[in-house]
Amino acid sequence: MCSGGFAKCLGICLIPLAILCVLCNILLFFPGGTVVDTTYITTEAFYFGGIVGSGVLMIFPALVFLGLKNNDCCGCCGNESCGRRFAMLSSILFAAVGVLGAGYSVIVSAIAMDRGPRCRTWGNDTYEEWNYPFSKGDYLSNHTLWEDCEGPKGVVTWHLTLFSMLLIMGVIQVALCAVQVVNGLLGALCGDCGCCGCCGGSDGAV
């Protein structure tokens, strides 16, 4: 497959992943599917790993990858491969932005999963308070600890599911952008077989 066409496939994959990451981050502001005061929301939700890291910052490389297939391949002194090669090279920079954004989301998600959710617990068995009852991911292997969270109902599952999705999708985004780095290098060094008929009626691949 031509490097431009392959990049377009990567862009098509990144768009829905970015949208899902944004949605997951938004849902984190409603722990357990309920509306609570912002002071009771898990801190990592406000780091916007899914909205900014795997969302907004991922849109830019995705759009660049989508446009590579139709990019003009004759933009450099009449050389029919130079323009596309430059475009493939520049896509590496956008892929790096994607790696940084998704990597940020992965780190935030990993920290959030290790820390656990902020939830309502009993302080000194006399009054309710909101805090983080878990430490160092102990609740991940011991589900009986989940009972320490009195509410909102299902908050632990909600927290774990959404941050797990952000973590997995972030890793996938990092992998796709890393693949585009390699693809971009190959396209820049070897040209793209998609250049045809754009410079003086050339029909051959470069």
Describe the structure.
The protein is mainly alpha-helical. 58% of the residues lie in helices and 5% in strands. It contains five helices and two strands. The protein has a two-stranded antiparallel sheet. Strand 1 (119-123) and strand 2 form a beta hairpin. Helix 1 (3-27) packs antiparallel against helix 5, helix 2 (49-68) packs parallel to helix 5 (155-190) and helix 3 (82-115) packs antiparallel against helix 5 (155-190).
Keywords:
elongated; 2 strands; two-stranded antiparallel sheet; 58% helix; mainly alpha
Shape designation: elongated
What percent of residues adopt helix (DSSP H or I)? 55-70%
Helix-and-strand structural type: mainly alpha
> How would a crystallographer describe the biggest sheet?
2 strands, antiparallel
Elements, N to C (H/E): HHHEEHH
The helix count comes to: 5
How big is the Rg?
23 Å
Contiguous runs where pLDDT drops below 50 for at least 5 residues: 72-79, 194-206
Q: Describe the strand arrangement of the main beta sheet, using strand numbers.
A: 1-2
Mean pLDDT: 85
* Beta-strand percentage range: under 5%
Give the N-to-C terminal Cα separation. Answer: 14 Å
Number of strands: 2
Write the layout of secondary structure elements.
Elements (H helix, E strand, L loop, with lengths): L2 H25 L21 H20 L13 H34 L3 E5 L3 E5 L6 H4 L13 H36 L16
Antiparallel strand pairs: 1-2
Helix pairs in contact: 1-2, 1-5, 2-3, 2-5, 3-5
